[in-house]
Amino acid sequence: MDYFSLLQWPAMVVNILAVWLLTSQTKGKRHAGFLFSILSNVLWVIWGWHAQAFAVLGLQVALATLNIQGVRKTESNAQAR
Asked: Which residues cross the membrane (predicted)?
């Protein structure tokens, strides 16, 4: 059995949970959403590498970069207040 192929399902669930948390009005839940989003990116990269789905790899690297930028921007805006 190819366990790497099954990795796409937890990656999808973590991704949905991340987006749900990111829409929260609570700062702690949004922060958890960013962390879950990064975890989702890592899971998708592992799956994409195994499946040789290079477009998925590129997308996940871009999304992770945007997520990290969003966290930094949010933190710098919070410190400026």
From this structure: 6-23, 30-47
Q: What is the pLDDT, as a whole number, of residue 67?
A: 87
As a whole number, mean pLDDT of residues 45-53 equals 95
Contact 17, 8 (CB under 8 A): no
For 21-44, what is the mean pLDDT?
Answer: 94
| The two structure tokens encoding residue 47 | 């799956």
* Percent above pLDDT 70 for the chain: 98
Element (H, E) at 25: none
Give the residue carrying structure tokens 């690297």: 61
* pLDDT for res 79: 78
Phi/psi at 53 (nearest 5 deg)? -95, 80
Domain ranges of the chain: 10-76
| Gap between the Cα atoms of 65 and 39, Å rounded | 13
